[in-house]
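Journal club prep — side note

Before the paper discussion, L.F. wants everyone to see what a predicted structure for a comparable chain looks like in token form. Sequence:
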Amino acid sequence: MPKIAFHVADTPDAQNAYEVLNKQYPSVSFKEADVIVALGGDGTLLEALHKLRPHQKPVYGMNCGSVGFLLNPFNPDDLKEKLRAAHHVTIYPLHMTAIDEDGKTHEAMAFNEVSLLRQTRQAAKLKIAVDGVERIDELVCDGILLATPAGSTAYNLSAHGPILPLSANVLALTPISAFRPRRWRGALIPCHAQVKIDVINSAKRPVSATADSTEVRNIQSIEIKQAGDNECTLLFDPDHHLEERILKEQFVV
């Protein structure tokens, strides 16, 4: 039996699930563990990935929340067998470097997406470059986001961005309520590309940047690239494989 450490959401359902599982599988420290079991919703799993990234341990999520797209169904029986048979999926986060109006640099990781949003009633005006080449000199919008394949079914999908297979090796650059250019619906860019976004007239049209749950306000510019050396491993039941779920999501009508 692998040594298990639990990361548990502060909700009644997750806490009750932990009590049941911990009686059968006593928890060890994150450092000692062979695998991390996250109990909660998708937010709890992302929280676990951020918190436990330095430990480089695989994470098996069990849904005790609402949506649970990145999680397995909660079932306290045969956890040992589930972990043994689990399918391993490697995901790569995005690294965000944002500079605010005071010139301060902020860095953060995102497993789902990095998003920029206007902070006031006025639309944001953004300049976008990919690998040093300016692609849009002025995008007037509510915001824009860059999503990973694992995060493409989250905020990106709500913003009418494309769903990305995990093996696609591309990122989705998706505008949020774009006003000009009206016909631009976003772009697919190589996973190794670097995206730079400058805020035009940031004093009058302030913009915030968010990497998963880390928010930076009043930014002047931001650079985003894949953190290829910070991969994490998610574990999924064979009949609940993430690649298949992403594929199915594209046929939902």
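L.F.'s comment for the group: The chain has a mean pLDDT of 93. Keep this in mind when we get to the figures.
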